[in-house]
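QUALITY CONTROL LOG
STEP: pairwise intake check
CHECKER ROLE: data steward
CRITERIA: each record must contain a sequence immediately followed by its structure tokens, with no blank fields

ENTRY 1 OF 2
RESULT FIELD BELOW
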Amino acid sequence: MGISFEILQKDIAARNGRLKVGDKTIRTPALLPVVNPHLPLVTPREMQEMGVEAIITNAYIFSKSSEYRDRALAEGLHKVLDFDGVIMTDSGSFQLMVYGEVEITNTETITFQQEIGSDIIVPLDIPTTPDNPREQVEEELEVTLDRIKEAREFLGPDAPLAGPVQGATFPDLREYAARRVQEIGFDFCPVGAVVPLMENYRYKDLVDVVLAAKRGLSPSTCVHLFGAGHPSMLALGAAMGCDIFDSAAYALFAKDGRYLTTYGSLKIDELSELACPCAVCRNHTAEELKKSPERERLLALHNLYVTLAEIARIRQAITDGTLWELLDIRCRSHPRLLEGYREFLRHAEELERQDRVSKRRFFYQGTESCRRTEVIRYHEMIERFTVGEKVLVSMTGDKMEEYDDVLSFKPPFGPFPTGLAETFPIGQSEVPAWDEAMMEAGCRGIARLAETHPESTVTVLAPADWAAFVRQALPGVEVLE
């Protein structure tokens, strides 16, 4: 049976792929809506009709339910939930995080999950919450790793088992945990205990945690970001290299009267318009939705539609090579998301090794664009330029015959020979009027040219209104105007 993952397309660290679980296949990135059998605002069958290929439910709830335990054991999880796609089951770790204890052992929960026909089984890991002391985190992490190893040995090497990666907010422990889990043997690894980070808008910490876990995992491992499901942050999650998301947000926010959008959560009672093309919003006015006896259910449907649409939008962006542009837009919807985005950009050199070489386009969207992987990769490529002894970098487009080579200039990349004018990223980039951030990045490209070609003398021909700026940015280079 087992789990396998095939990567089809890449952008930044994101992947469009196929996750195969037994004889079932789902497209990734994918959202697994959380299903509580006792409170189904949207049924699994309805979800499947909306395009959902996989769901997640809680095996611990089933094991303790007088209504569902015997049915699940007798009929199987898929029949009880009326869903024939992939069903992943949580072991009870969520309850362990919330209540501090559960009345089930590791072997009991993995045995129960297997008996009810779960497609992806999760061991009873300890979800150490953020800000616990390191000694406690280390102790609980070792217990988790022992349980993961126990589950693998108990169910065998081909069992469809997930290997959770814990370690709280200590990046070195997350990386260590990921390496250990990988050594035990897993193709599917959830990054756990991150819900408190997202609930408190600690996206900077989330970036550090996820990227640390990714460093310890094989590039071919399918990565699940446990509890992530707000549409505003899914692009960031995908860009970090997460392939699977799950969340009960669509239902929980509906119960609280919250209307999800890609730029945040709104209170339905404060809306006068429903600016969304989903079936719910096109068939109801804001006033009708507020007063509907099915208000919670309709809000849940809208929330799920919006989230699924964002997943599809992310997959298309990966195909088009425009995930940076989508990410830039989404992360400006909240100051803490922007903080997370800037932390993500701090890892651009690391991400550059995973990003694709050529894309359809590069849209300049401000200061953050200067730190993108395409700019870093281009600056590294400058070393390979072949130039003569006297080199002119012309920012004005003018040429001067006394130079051996005349290079053109395009910020934020910097100098380029004519032969690269139609190639990515020079030819496929759209930049507005020059600003200081892009010019500073472009000057770094010129500095890179001078540094990697010490046998050449580099001169810059700058527009009069930029000459002083360029001189300050390139103190060792002659600047003409």
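ENTRY 2 OF 2
RESULT FIELD BELOW
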Amino acid sequence: MFSKFILPSLMIVAQALAHQNLHQFWVNGVSQGYQVGIRMPPSNSPVTDVNSNDIVCNVNGSNGANVAVVNANAGDTIEVQWDTSGHPGPIVHSLHGPVASAKSASGVGDWFKIQELNYVNGKWANEVMMANAGKYSFKLPANLASGEYLLRSEMLALHASQTVEGAQFYIGCMQLKITGPGGNCSPKYKLPGAYKATDNNIYISDFYFGFVPETYSAPGPAVATCAGGSGPQPTTLATTTAVRTTTAAATTTTVRTTAATTTAVRTTTTATTTTRAATTGSSGSGAPLYGQCGGQGWTGPTTCAQGTCTKSNDWYSQCL
């Protein structure tokens, strides 16, 4: 909770660590290169008009003809890296698609939210990222239809939200070609159209005086639930154990006859069969730091390799 006594120091920090851009992203730890696959805006200035098409993929962000399309799979881990900023606020990621071509899609229209981080354990999302060189990790939904998508990363700076159109949106759109098992995600929301300048999570008149940040949720609907498709199965380590089974066959008597004598020969045959019983045991070390570890519809790891699994909302928990 902010007070008037810490306002001056916060404003000094905000001035020192100001505007920002998304510069790089990784798919399962692999980057295609600096600014590759991202529709880069002409400057690091914010968008403040939520009714403008600039709110979709930033200024001049309606076309990605000269931007690479990066391959990914449903369920992959995405890590983004922004310029660090002292502006308090959330980070949100949304998908638009599948579309006929990520290069030509404007992004105007339907989106669905796949992640958001607001104020958790006394820190805004930007503070979490400042402690990690501007990086933040999350997972694509496991149930996505194959096709090309726009992946939108939004950081909202709330330090000037006490005035209408004072909130600052920093936006970066990435171009992906996703291979997935199929699925449908809802709810969806439209950009532009879903945000209003007077929404109580965009215009916050008491942001530094009495506002309770723990109650804050980022603009747009809740994180979408993606259903349908098979989705990736948990990784298991198979342990095979050989079990030997011995079966005694029936005893038979063969009568061998010759001209002189008749001899009974008793023959016992033992048949031995071997069967293999497979047992499996799960393996894995949990979700990475800042990775998803829970939420409605989540099928991935629910423990953390580092940090504690912390609930952000009913649809998203994260290792912090």
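INTAKE CHECK: passed for both entries
DESCRIPTIVE NOTE, ENTRY 2: The first strand starts at residue 22 and ends at 27.
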